[in-house]
Task: inverse folding
């Protein structure tokens, strides 16, 4: 019994492609894309602190991480926002 393989092609004109995928070299488009997971350095830059400060919060169990491998550590953006909001609430809403 033979295997039938069907192929198809999807054609788009240049304008349609640009509407779907922002240019990698376009800084405004790059800033609009938010990452779901952040490296420790990226998270530290967002809240203007040191990487070590975040590592201590992780060791203390205040901040949850995602560790897909032994060396790779990521923080969910929503977890970072939750953690920052919890400190804002403790300080009486002052951020």
Result:
């Amino acid at each position: 019994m033979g295997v039938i393989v069907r192929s198809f092609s999807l054609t788009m004109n240049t304008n349609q492609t640009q509407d779907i995928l922002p240019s990698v070299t376009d800084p405004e488009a790059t800033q609009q894309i938010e990452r779901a997971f952040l490296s420790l350095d990226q998270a530290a830059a967002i809240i203007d602190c040191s990487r070590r400060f975040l590592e201590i919060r992780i060791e203390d169990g205040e901040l949850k991480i995602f560790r897909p491998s032994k060396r790779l550590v990521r923080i969910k953006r929503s977890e970072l926002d939750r953690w920052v909001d919890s400190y804002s609430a403790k300080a009486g809403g002052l951020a």
